[in-house]
Amino acid sequence: MKKLLFLILILSLASCKKSNDTYLKDKDIVDISMKISFIDVNGADLLNQNNPNAFNISYIKLYHQVNGEELYFEPHLTTSKELNFSCKKSFCSIRILLADTTFLQLNNQITDTIYSEIANFGLPIASVKKIWYNGEFIWDAEDGVEKYFTILK
């Protein structure tokens, strides 16, 4: 039975296809995302498009800086694999795939910086270990809590 399980594991790993399109696509089995919501001082949801003061989700852009080199730009919030907009919880949120350095442009005046410590375990496996948002340490994998944050703007 152990030999059969080992054979299945080897065949599964051998059939994995590695893509070299971008840094993020190289990792087929990943835990490199976070969810984020934005509120104002009154607690209003700044991603809810029914709020007249909300960020326009069609304008939100995501940039990745990888190994100190070129920026990867993903312009399509509603169809992107790097950005995913959702209003399923009490606040609307954006799910973001992270790189070592990620820039989240909310409008012409506001661009936030997210630094991530990402562990690559070989094969196509990676996981976020720590996150800093605009220079403030906000998450550690060792704490065992969900990577969901509400940011006051």
Helical stretch tally:
1
What gap, in angstroms, lies between the N and C termini? 57 Å
Q: Which parts are unreliable, with pLDDT below 50 for 5 consecutive residues or more?
A: 1-28
**Structural domains: how many:** 1
Global structural class: mainly beta
Radius of gyration: 18 Å
Global outline: globular
Main sheet summary: 7 strands, mixed
As a percent range, the share of strand residues is: 35-45%
Strand/helix succession: HEEEEEEEEEEE
- Strands, total number: 11
Mean pLDDT metric = 77
Helical fraction equals under 10%
Describe this protein's structure.
The protein is mainly beta and 153 residues long. The chain contains 1 helix and 11 strands; from the N terminus they run H-E-E-E-E-E-E-E-E-E-E-E. The strands form 2 sheets. Strands 1, 3, 4, 7, 8, 9 and 10 form a 7-stranded mixed sheet that branches. A 4-stranded mixed sheet has the order 5-6-2-11, with no helix packed on it. A hairpin with a 5-residue loop joins strand 7 (101-105) and strand 8. The longest helix is centred in the first third of the chain and has 13 residues, at 2-14. The N and C termini lie far apart (57 Å).
Question: What's a quick, concise take on this entry?
Answer:
This protein has 153 residues and is mainly β. It is built from 1 helix and 11 strands; from the N terminus they run H-E-E-E-E-E-E-E-E-E-E-E. It has one helix spanning 2-14, and strands spanning 29-31, 33-39, 61-65, 71-74, 83-86, 93-97, 101-105, 111-120, 125-133, 136-140, 148-152.
